[in-house]
């Protein structure tokens, strides 16, 4: 439910197994709340709930991350997501920016008292190395298995039995309800799985006019796949520059030279090699500038250089 994603310098503390969870992790793991006011999908994502759990001294993840000195962009995706559905977002990153080098994420498992998965404090996902996305190996792709699911240790796993009404997305009415912390283990630890024959594995709820049942939610089964994650470079700004170039009536030799540079830049950028790709865009700009007023009319050159500036900015080359 409602993944939180943040890009940073590699040192942002999310959680450590064996240590108490932060309030940011607690609010995500228990209620799927990140405090991102731009995420307006139901249920509400405001950092509010039971006063003993939600307070100014117990901030949500969005506030915590914004207060981290070396943060990049962050986002919250969607709301409760049914199996088989896809969530996505796009970040505009600068491969040279020290605060754009790593990615962390946290995701609640619903329904649950405080089950979640994500990147811990010492294993964020490295995005760039020496200007190359994923070391030039293409998209980052991995599968999250049931064995990766964690328990935040912030709330007892009673699953709302005996009328407790404290399990998010099953029977909870107010964020923050439940027994805090988990008396069995108040630290982040491997989740033991849902109660066999308990309220979750035998239960259903209504959300958004749809009946949701959880009979196949036993993630402790061998090979149980919870999520599939792909992180990849998305480029398209060079395509617009190529289209502009192709629409012009330039000397064939100049046009071919410029086109070759743009095609090479696109290949490099699509492959995550930002140093080489940005260098090739720079070479394109140098050739346009050198030919301005000679083989390329001044107005045409200005249009090409303006489009180049947009492409360079979009791909983090400035």
List strands and helices in order, with pairings:
Elements: E1 4-8, H1 23-31, H2 61-66, E2 71-76, E3 102-108, E4 115-118, E5 125-126, E6 128-129, E7 132-133, E8 140-145, E9 150-151, E10 189-190, E11 204-207, E12 210-213, E13 225-231, H3 237-246, H4 252-270, H5 274-291, H6 298-314
Antiparallel strand pairs: 1-2, 1-3, 3-4, 3-5, 4-9, 6-7, 8-13, 9-10, 11-12
Q: Your description of this structure?
A:
This protein is α+β, with helices and mostly antiparallel strands and 318 residues long. It has two domains: 4-231, Immunoglobulin-like, CATH 2.60.40; 237-314. Helix content is 25%, strand content 17%. The protein has six helices and 13 strands. It has helices spanning 23-31, 61-66, 237-246, 252-270, 274-291, 298-314, and strands spanning 4-8, 71-76, 102-108, 115-118, 125-126, 128-129, 132-133, 140-145, 150-151, 189-190, 204-207, 210-213, 225-231. The strands form four sheets. Strands 1, 2, 3, 4, 5, 9 and 10 form a seven-stranded antiparallel β-sheet that branches. A hairpin with a 2-residue loop joins β11 (204-207) and β12 (210-213). α3 (237-246) runs antiparallel to α6 (298-314), α4 (252-270) runs antiparallel to α5 (274-291) and α5 runs antiparallel to α6. The protein is elongated and about 85 Å long. The mean pLDDT is 93.
């Amino acid at each position: 439910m409602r993944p939180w994603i943040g890009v940073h310098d590699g040192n942002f503390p999310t959680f450590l197994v064996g240590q108490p969870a932060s309030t940011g992790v607690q609010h995500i793991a228990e209620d799927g709340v990140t405090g991102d006011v731009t995420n307006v999908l139901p249920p509400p994502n405001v950092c509010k709930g039971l006063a003993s759990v939600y307070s100014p001294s117990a901030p949500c993840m969005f506030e915590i991350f914004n207060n981290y000195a070396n943060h990049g962009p962050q986002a919250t995706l969607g709301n409760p997501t049914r199996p088989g559905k896809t969530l996505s977002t796009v970040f505009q990153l600068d491969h040279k920016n020290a605060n754009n080098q790593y990615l962390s994420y946290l995701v609640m498992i619903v329904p649950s008292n405080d089950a979640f998965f994500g990147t811990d404090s010492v294993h964020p996902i490295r995005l760039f190395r020496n200007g190359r996305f994923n070391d030039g190996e293409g998209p980052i792709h991995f599968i999250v298995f049931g064995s990766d699911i964690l328990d935040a240790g912030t709330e007892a796993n009673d699953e709302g039995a005996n009328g407790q009404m404290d399990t998010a997305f099953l029977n909870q009415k107010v964020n923050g309800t439940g027994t805090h912390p988990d008396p069995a283990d108040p630290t982040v630890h491997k989740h033991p799985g849902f109660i066999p024959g308990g309220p979750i594995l035998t239960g259903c709820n209504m959300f958004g006019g749809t009946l949701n049942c959880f009979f196949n939610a036993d993630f402790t089964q061998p090979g149980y796949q919870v999520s599939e994650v792909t992180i990849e470079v998305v480029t398209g700004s060079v395509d617009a520059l190529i289209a502009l170039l192709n629409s012009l009536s330039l000397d064939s030799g100049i046009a071919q030279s410029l086109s070759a540079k743009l095609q090479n830049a696109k290949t490099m950028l699509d492959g995550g090699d930002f140093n080489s790709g940005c260098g090739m865009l720079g070479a394109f700009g140098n050739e346009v500038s050198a030919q301005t007023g000679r083989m390329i009319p001044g107005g045409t050159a200005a249009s090409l250089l303006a489009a180049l500036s947009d492409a360079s900015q979009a791909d983090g080359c400035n």
